[in-house]
Amino acid sequence: MLALPAAWLVAPAFVSPPPAATPEVPAWQQAPTALSARMGLSPLSASAPAPLPSAVAAQLDGFLKPDGDGSFTGLVQDALTGQVLFDRGGSESRIPASNMKLLTAVAALRAIGPDHRFSTKVLAGPAANQVVLTGGGDVLLGDGESAPNQVMGHAGLATLATSTVNALQTAGTTGELTVLVNDSLFTGPTLNPAWADGDVAAGEVAPLYPLALNSARFDPAVTTGPRPQDSAITAAEAFTAQLKTAGAAAGLTVAAGVERYTAPSGDAPRAEEPAVLAEVQSATVGQQVDLMLQTSDNYLAEVLGRMASAAAGEPASNDGATGAVRAQLADLGIPTDAMRLADVSGLALANQVSARQFAEVVRAITSGTNTRLRAALDGFPVAGLTGTLDTRYVNGSTARGAGLVRAKTGTLNSVIALSGYVVDADGRLLVFSFIGNDLKPGAAGNREALDRAATALAACGCR
């Protein structure tokens, strides 16, 4: 009776089939024993055949049709020679939406420089135990430690607070600190009067200050909805909280609340320059330009426009920003007489720019003589992959353009635009700009029309 259960335990060893042999792993699934030779794209050849204008028109005319009301204008150029390959009302001024940011990118890179960094400083205050958080144009501050490998949050307020406490300790400061904030770098209205109240309320933009957390967002991961209406005070409050934490171990306390710094009047005797207690620096202007273009960040665009004006010695204001963009384009040789600029982000409906002007700007970035503009190339969204084009070029009519079309998008209720560049099937670099105005709001066919046109260019062996 005891042997029977034991037999049931032993029996499977005799009656079960032997374990299967381990299958051989196919060669293509095995780890390589050596790395392949590095591969890369060959440089474009100036001898690659240029498309025939008639053939390009035959490709594009069938696609650039509005879905309902409105009309499209467009211009295509050979990037190397500037030859116009397609022109449908390309010189007509139109509302460009966020394609305006391409102009701002050029102005910032030319006036400020792609390698420049904005500084956020803490200065000794006018009275004992006062510190002044001073904005220098970085609106991508993070509230934690500096993140050197990021653009957003590259400079962190926790790092700035720790450095401030170290400097105060070295100076022998004790007692309670008061935080002031100096946001005097920007002048004029914080909101552009050309912006619709509804756009401001929806969080498309916010009042402009020379320092902000997360491009004036409460959370960098939430890019819609309400925004801080006083980003300078919001940033100063976050700095105060970090200063309180960092100062606790050093025996320093921090008064609640933040006050705005008021500069001495012109009649007051000139004081010595205040000591810089601590400083953090932003990501480069080139990196910020790329982020602006990839995400179509209105707030960042407006700030970069103001900083371009300041770099030229002009007021860092709304009018200064539009003036800086106009001046930099004119200096680049792009006619601006018919251009109307109400802002530098493209949110204003009063902007008027032609497809020809955008194509010339893209041409200057891709192949112009000012190589500093090449810093904007990484900012162009890639069709089907990155930025504001990441969810486009996914259906049967546009998928051939995925990974090939690189362009800045623009969208308002009755406006859609796309300006960028492609390398066609013959290896020729082409720049283009397509702009639709007076369109039926929300009509899906309008976006597809532009995407199909750009896809046709990328596939073009138009000879």
From TrEMBL:
GO MF terms held by the record: serine-type D-Ala-D-Ala carboxypeptidase activity
Pfam families per record: Peptidase_S13
Entry EC number(s): 3.4.16.4
Signal peptide limits: 1-21
Enzyme class: hydrolase
Keywords, in A-Z order: Carboxypeptidase, Hydrolase, Protease, Signal
Coiled coil residues, start to end: none
Hydrolase in keyword set: yes
NCBIfam families (alphabetical): PBP4 (TIGR00666)
Record family assignment: Belongs to the peptidase S13 family.
Listed name of the protein: D-alanyl-D-alanine carboxypeptidase/D-alanyl-D-alanine-endopeptidase
Organism of this sequence: Pseudarthrobacter humi
Native organism taxonomy: Bacteria, Bacillati, Actinomycetota, Actinomycetes, Micrococcales
